[in-house]
Amino acid sequence: MAFLDLSHLEKSFGATRVVKDFDLSIEKGEFVSFLGPSGCGKTTVLRMVAGFEKPTTGTIRIDGRDVTRLKPNQRNIGMVFQAYALFPNLTVAQNVGFGPKVAGMAKAEIGERVEEMLKLIGLPDLGDRFPWQLSGGQQQRVALARALAVRPQVLLLDEPLSALDAKIRVSLREEIRALQKELGITTIFVTHDQEEALSMSDRVVVMHEGKAAQVGSPFEIYTWPKTRFVASFVGTLNLLEGEVIDAGRMRLDGIEVPVARGLDGRGTGEPVTVALRPEAVSLGLNGSGLAGTVESVAFLGAVVRTRVKLGRQTITLDSFNQTATRPPEPGAPVRLMFGADDLLVLGED
Amino acid sequence: MAFLDLSHLEKSFGATRVVKDFDLSIEKGEFVSFLGPSGCGKTTVLRMVAGFEKPTTGTIRIDGRDVTRLKPNQRNIGMVFQAYALFPNLTVAQNVGFGPKVAGMAKAEIGERVEEMLKLIGLPDLGDRFPWQLSGGQQQRVALARALAVRPQVLLLDEPLSALDAKIRVSLREEIRALQKELGITTIFVTHDQEEALSMSDRVVVMHEGKAAQVGSPFEIYTWPKTRFVASFVGTLNLLEGEVIDAGRMRLDGIEVPVARGLDGRGTGEPVTVALRPEAVSLGLNGSGLAGTVESVAFLGAVVRTRVKLGRQTITLDSFNQTATRPPEPGAPVRLMFGADDLLVLGED
Amino acid sequence: MRGRLWSIAVVLIGALYFFLPLIGMFEFSLRMKRGVYSFEAYRVVLGDPHFQQTFGYSVVLALLTIVLGVLIVVPTAYWIRLRLPSIRPVVEFVTLLPLVIPPIVIVFGYIRIYNTSSWLPLTGSWLGTNLLILFGYATLSLPYMYRAVDTGLRTIDVATLTEAAQSLGAGWGRILATVILPNVFVSVLSGAFLTFAIVIGEYVFAALLNLDTFGPYMVWMGSNRAYEPSALAVIAFAITWACMALIQLLTHFSTFAKARR
Amino acid sequence: MRGRLWSIAVVLIGALYFFLPLIGMFEFSLRMKRGVYSFEAYRVVLGDPHFQQTFGYSVVLALLTIVLGVLIVVPTAYWIRLRLPSIRPVVEFVTLLPLVIPPIVIVFGYIRIYNTSSWLPLTGSWLGTNLLILFGYATLSLPYMYRAVDTGLRTIDVATLTEAAQSLGAGWGRILATVILPNVFVSVLSGAFLTFAIVIGEYVFAALLNLDTFGPYMVWMGSNRAYEPSALAVIAFAITWACMALIQLLTHFSTFAKARR
ipTM, 2 decimals? Predict the structure, then answer.
């Protein structure tokens, strides 16, 4: 049996069911992200695990113990909030020591624990500061230390990085991941940022309208999205209309292209929608590939985004900016190339 | 003479000089972005053009007319704010018609102008709505229509997209750019988002501590940054330490590499810092290139970010996620390749 | 469940404090005619020329106070938010003073400084005394008026809206009239109603300045009659209640309020 | 320049309203001994046993009012912000009532419902009357206390701080005592000082309930003596001023206030 086990969780607010028949098993030490747009129910699931919301039906088990009806302060869970939520009247050390103090630990022991935690987050000298004297990134690290100070069985992170600047966000997510690996603590991380979820997690749960649309490793989620929702929420996407030839080929804009998977069981001539990642398409100026015309070129920095008109359809493709070659001009004829593996045949949501 | 001419602009608040000797000429119909971190003075320059701040010294000329001492309501300038700033007590049509009404236009004429403007922004049927009935993106488009309704000589945009969601931000920036091209209106766009500045502008002014650190086309700014600040603010960057061999070569971690430009006039053996964009480096698993060991691999979605240990230095490289090949594992030996063009020798700030 | 309990507690406390006394008073006011409930006491009170006179007087005073307050407070509060945010604490402090300085002290001061033998003998003439009480009431209402208007201004982005209007060519007069005032109108009204209710019921100022307003009339009735004071109190309460209801209505059903939900 | 002009205008209005009367009164209060300035009037007033008695009485009443107010308001305001944000408008409405219902009406109602022949004859006994005025004063101070505490609660993220404390194992008592109260302490104090100032100067309640507090004493002095009332007014003003200054000091120099700048 898994360490953290959510089975048949449901939650309704009034007539709205925000979480529907949610099942998930998380192994000890695993880092699992809940990824989805706002309103998809990801935060509600987290808050049910924390005990702030009571499930309408279903059970939550931690290490075999049923905690579904326990109050939040009886669950031994560490939580980090988007808004830091440090106690403004307490110093950093007092904040970190709050949990151990509530747990009735001896004063000397609390001091040791606080010192250990502050060292862990790399702020050993800031114990006497007040929260308002710290930067956002420091505050969130203290919040993390505070949550970890009670040695919780599960660590819950509720969009902990979204209030921070872009650069700090990137460095802090690496820190959090390293800390989580070091402590081996079972962690749930809620986010709406696909890059965060993909870069940090062992497994990602993509949520959509209260359900888990797909559960898998970051690579699986990105490379083989199961539904149209997952494909479009995680990364950008071209959707192309065509028709099936046989299990390994389809016709796209009059040209036959090989498709590696997903066409089994579809009849010849059946219309089919395939998805194609912009970065999977490359330009072959001369030679084979589908012929099209450059519609627009946007320079985004590292990436140049080119729109190519291809018969009735428009394909977006991303390529890295190359110092030696200027991007193509609008109106130029180009040829597009992509592999049979890159065409994703999508299921319904 | 240029259409909009800023010469020797300076602005001090108390003892702090936030804008220092700022010169810029903008041609009629040009789209110029001011890009920089908060506090770099970009907004202050914009507000001086609008008339909300009086320059300490310097002059502002629009179409040859000195407007430096004119009040904001005498300048014939259109302004769009980050916070939309629609008048909450007026309908969309009344908001758009505010400027023409102040200008004393006849009622029928105002009606026509409002209709024209609403059509221009693609919201012809929302004239009777109040601002709070619109989405953020719609509100900002109405604010744009309101600013354009007085047929201003110059359009000023003060971070107009930063309050919006990521997806709307991208579509609205394309709309704004298309509208600006259609009307041929001279435009200044202030932003801290490099992608916005690079993708929308004819020219970008990168600002740093009240000065223009570099002025150039987006491609120039990204590809040939002049200073270390510009290089690190626009895009991510590897900084590598090495020593000069001669004008065309340097020694990096014991290996000789060719450098296309920037080493003229430096003596042999002189230490030099070069910058290298992560996307300019590629992995060659066997063969030539610098030998290193994979330190970590982060899967960011479209991009896989790999850190490679190279002697004493660490190089970050970005590559597109390829469906067919899994990213390398930490610890694997790899070889790094990059072109002579990709090594940027940076000047001081 | 726990929430419901608290709601009940709140309602109960409210009842004990306000409604029970009111109901008792209302019941009593109906008992002027022996043996039957009647509105006799109300007939007597409303027909009393002294009531009509003092009440009318107080209403006029209240309206003048409101006009004076709006003229002082709206431009001041706007300008302070726009250009002098640093002196806002000072102004807030000043506007709080009338709350904590007992009215008695203010009136003593007024009588002392503006008496018949002073350099500005306001208390010596009818007009002077009325001016004095008008200013006094404006002072009393300052905290409420300023808070209301300032709260109203807080809900809009004063600086940006002003700059937007300026960039569209508008001058100060137009900005105040078409951008600022319409957006704080509801707040101004709620401040005005509070002022109205306070001036109508005020006693200490009027009594010490020897003016025949509604407050002293109520107290005089209270110590000399049996049923009429209750009727009066119910009437006074009805007026203030109507004012409060109007504030709530205006706040709830204004289009601008919706925008903020 | 324009800003400076306005600052001067504000100071001038303040002066005309508050300081000029005060200075006049202060000057007058020093003239009890013919020909020379002296603190004779203050000596007389402070030495008057009736002053000491009424003032002491009012101070005790004020402190009890504050305790009662804090006990009612802090948990209520906290719970409403945390769990019942939907009834906040209702509660705000209730707390505004004492502002707009003239105290006279409230007292009339109290006398009517709690008189000697009623089901709860509070006005019949010494203890009952004091309880009545205590509740009356708590009512009067409700708007200020509630506003102050609610404003204090607004500056912290009540819901998230509560959840953070809960997830760290804390129960309700500990959350109120170690998380909520310390963070609204300054607000509670400022509400308390306002309450203190209001109770000390209150006249209508005390007079109509026939209680010998500081307010009626001041009015009695005002109509029967010449110099002492001015001295009294200056003392009362000094007290309220000290209260206000304390509020400002606390707000400015508390560590939490710094966090918000």
Answer: 0.72
